[in-house]
Amino acid sequence: MYKCCYELDIELPEGYKENALSIWNNLYEKEGVTVKTNRETHPELFEPLGEMADWLVPTCRILNNVPETHGTGVMHYANNNHGYYPGKGEWVKVDAGLNIPLFDLDGIITRWWDQDEPDDLGPYDFYMDRDKINHTKFTEVDHFEITTKPVLFRLGKWHLGDAPGYTKRRAMMSFSCKMTIDWDNWVNAWKKTGKLIER
Amino acid sequence: MYKSCYEVDIKLPDDYVDKAMKAFDERLPKAYKDRAPDAHIDEYPELFEIFGDMKGWFAPKVRLLNHTPNELGTTAPHFDVNEHWQYEDMDRFIKIEASLNVPLFAPEGVRTFWYQQKNPDVIHPYDFWEGKEYEMRVVDEFEITNKPVLFRTGIWHAVQKSDSKRTMLSFSARYGIDWDTFVNCWKDSGLLIER
After folding, report:
1. What residue ranges in A108-157 does DSSP mark as E strands?
2. CA A160 vs CA A72, A113, A146, A163: distances in Å
3. Selection from B66, B70, B34, B36 nearest residue B160 by Cα
4. Who contacts B41 (Cβ-Cβ below 8 Å, separation ≥6)?
5. Chain A interface, best mutation among B94, B137, B182, by max A CB count within 10 A
6. B189 has a chain A CB within 8 A of its CB
7. Cα–Cα distance list, A17 to A8, A11, A48, A160, B47 (Å)
8. Per-residue pLDDT tens for A141-151?
9. Complex ipTM, two decimals?
10. Among A3, A76, B96, B132, which residue carries the largest CB count within 10 Å?
11. What is the CA radius of gyration of chain A?
């Protein structure tokens, strides 16, 4: 199987991070915990990806939460709860994405997991019951520290940003692939561009 | 990436075909007109017993295929979604990412092909059935013969055209189980045959 995260050799234009955080600031009051915007309103957020942006849905998120509070510090996988795939239902999984870190280096490691047992689990289970993780068996299949480069990010597999006790907000652009694009397809598409950095 | 099909070393009891055909005959009148019949584990537990301890990895419904690929429409690229409500009370367009197929037909040389998109086209899961075409790249091919197989149902795939009836049971992995997890759990069981 492919690894669950790959850095991309993409340069961000000067001011990209500041612009994204400014958009987040403007939308936070209205949108709350999860800030979304789209390609039509903010094409500049997609521009560093060039033609590869066409593999993504137009909706993107600007994450800026404390990981263990409302964020990605709890085991989860991504589903269609932000309307990426109109008309397809909330429980459709979002398999593949691309993240652009907007945070200062924080040493947080993202880990991806396989279930060890065939437990009947939903994507929100570990948010709703914070003790459940202690009674569910997983095997880690990959881990990676996102630092300064954009990364391909496997969204549709159990993962978390391992940040116990971390109290600061962690900002990141999160783009999602179109519904029919699975993780392997996404990795292969980027390998062909020559911009994927192998691990 | 893993391959899209692996044989597994599961022995079928002598009367398994009879049980499967009995279920097919009983369930056919209750099937949706445009879909193969299916059977629930509560009513047909004997169909699931071949998996032993691995039974828990499956959704409670098995699809009962007894059609030619041409009849079933599987000769056009498609991926499987929750149209048999394998994931009860959930959305229709959830992908069935992984399955285990039990062939009950005589091998006839028909291969299955798996594909990736070459371009970022917006494709509806049923587009190919409606005659639309998109550029695809073959990423794996395999002929199912007489062993049960792990079968990647959640990416584009198509069966070669054939007028031979292919009787097969298709068990869907539980909601949330991705292909890599499914392959890994069968590797751990020692039953997966590497290719």
Report:
1. 109-115, 138-145, 151-154
2. 6, 9, 12, 9
3. B70
4. B47, B48, B58, B60, B61, B62
5. B94
6. no
7. 17, 12, 12, 23, 56
8. 999 999 999 99
9. 0.91
10. B96
11. 16
What are the structure tokens assigned to A88, written together?
Answer: 């397809």
Domains contained in chain B, CATH given: 5-189 (2.60.120)
Residue ranges of chain A whose CB lies within 8 Å of a chain B CB: 1-2, 54-56, 77, 85, 88-93, 95, 114-118, 120-123, 139, 141, 156-157, 178-182, 184-185, 187-189
Q: Which of A91, A121, A185 has the CB atom closest to B116's CB atom?
A: A185
In order of start, what are the domains of chain A with their CATH numbers? 5-193 (2.60.120)
A31, pLDDT greater than 80? no
- What is the Cα–Cα distance from A138 to A162, expressed in whole angstroms? 15
| Per-residue tens of pLDDT for chain B, all 195 residues | 999 999 999 999 999 999 999 999 999 999 988 889 999 999 999 999 999 999 999 999 999 998 887 777 788 999 999 998 999 988 999 999 999 999 998 888 889 999 999 999 999 988 998 999 999 999 999 999 999 999 999 999 999 988 888 899 999 999 999 999 999 999 999 999 999
| Helix (DSSP H) and strand (DSSP E) numbers for chain A | 3, 9
Nearest to B94 among A92, A139, A184 (CB): A92
- For residue A22, the SS3 value is helix
Half-sphere exposure of A121 (CA within 13 A, CB side): 28
Contact B179, B80 (CB under 8 A): no
Residues of A in contact with B94 (CB under 8 A): 89, 91-93
Task: Find tokens 């005589």 and name the residue.
Answer: B106
Tokens of A87: 């008309």
C-beta atoms of B117 and A180 within 8 A = yes
Task: Show the beta-strand stretches assigned E in A41-106.
Answer: 56-65, 96-101
A98-to-A23, A134, A145, A172, A177 alpha-carbon distances in Å: 19, 29, 14, 10, 8
